[in-house]
Design brief:
By secondary structure, the protein is of the alpha/beta class. Helix content is about 40%, strand content about 20%. The protein has eleven helices and eight strands. Strand 3, helix 1 and strand 4 form a beta-alpha-beta unit. The longest helix is centred in the middle third of the chain and has 16 residues. It is globular and about 45 Å long.
Length: about 250
C-alpha cells in the first residue's frame, strides 16, 4: 500500500499497487465503494497482467483518510487522485473509472491532462442532477447532519449486502458530501469535458441499464460507446470478460 498527502492538513489518499510496464492503469471506484473490491479480479485477467496497476481509494472511502473539513467535490476528488499519481510518478496513465469514479476521471483528465492518456468509463456520471432514483440523489436529498445521524443507516439497509459491504467503510459525512458534489457536477459539466477531451475514450454501458442518454453526441465526439450484454451498472461483476477486453483495448 502507498499513500500521498492530498490536503493542507496532511490527510492521505491511499492505493494498492502492482508493478509492471508503463503506462500505468489506474482504477477508480464509485460512490461508497473501494477500488480493489471492484477491480482487482479484472486486473488479474491474463489480457491485463504485466502492466503497472494502481487501485486508488478516493478520499473518505476504503483505506484513504476521511478529513471532516474536506469538501469532497468532484474537483477535490480529482485533485486528490492527481496527488497520488504525482507521488507515484504515474504520468500518462490510463484511468478506468466506474460511476462516480468515472466522473472524477473525466474531471482529472481536464484539470491535469498530462497525467491521463486514456479513459475507460463504466456508466460514469456525465450530467448534473441525476434522476431521483439514483443513489447519489437519494443520499444528497438528506441534509448532511440528518444523513449522518439517520440516513446513513437507512441507505446501508436499502442498497443490499454487496454494496453495503464497501459503503460501510466510507465515512458518512464524506459519503454525503461526495453525493452532493456528484449531483452538482463539474463546471463545465462532465459530458462536455468528455466530448472535448483529446485522449482515447471508451464508455461502457450495461445493456440492462437501458440506452445511454446522449449516445449520438458522444460518438460524434469520438467516444467509443460499448453496450455490454448481460450487464447492469456493475459491468465488471456482470460481464467481467467484456469489461477486461474493453480495458485491454481488444473488445
Amino acid at each position: 500500500m502507498q499513500q500521498a498527502t492530498f490536503d493542507s492538513r496532511g490527510s492521505h489518499i491511499r492505493w494498492t499497487e502492482a508493478p509492471g510496464e508503463e503506462p500505468a492503469r489506474v482504477y477508480l471506484h464509485g460512490l461508497g465503494s473501494m477500488s480493489t473490491a471492484y477491480h482487482a479480479h479484472i486486473a488479474a485477467r491474463p489480457a491485463l497482467t504485466g502492466r503497472r496497476t494502481l487501485f486508488v481509494d478516493l478520499p473518505g472511502h476504503g483505506t484513504s483518510d476521511r478529513p471532516q473539513d474536506f469538501g469532497y467535490t468532484l474537483e477535490e476528488h480529482a485533485d486528490a487522485v492527481a496527488a497520488a499519481l504525482d507521488a507515484a510518478g504515474a504520468a500518462g496513465a490510463e484511468l478506468i473509472g466506474h460511476s462516480m469514479g468515472g466522473a472524477v476521471a473525466v474531471v482529472l483528465a481536464h484539470r491535469r491532462p498530462g497525467l491521463v492518456s486514456r479513459l475507460v468509463l463504466t456508466e460514469a456520471n456525465l450530467d448534473a442532477f441525476p434522476p431521483v432514483t439514483a443513489a447519489s440523489s437519494k443520499i444528497a436529498s438528506y441534509e448532511e447532519n440528518e444523513f449522518v445521524e439517520r440516513g446513513y443507516a437507512r441507505v446501508l439497509d436499502a442498497v443490499g449486502p454487496l454494496w453495503a459491504a464497501t459503503m460501510r467503510l466510507a465515512d458518512p459525512r464524506a459519503l454525503h458530501r461526495s453525493a452532493v458534489g456528484l449531483r452538482r457536477g463539474s463546471d463545465p459539466v462532465m459530458r462536455t469535458l468528455l466530448e472535448d477531451s483529446p485522449v482515447d475514450r471508451v464508455f461502457l454501458q450495461g445493456a440492462h441499464s437501458g440506452e445511454l442518454a446522449g449516445r449520438d453526441g458522444l460518438e460524434s465526439a469520438g467516444v467509443r460507446v460499448v453496450t455490454v450484454p448481460g450487464a447492469g451498472h456493475n459491468v465488471m461483476f456482470d460481464n467481467p470478460g467484456a469489461f477486461a477486453a474493453a480495458v485491454a483495448g481488444t473488445g
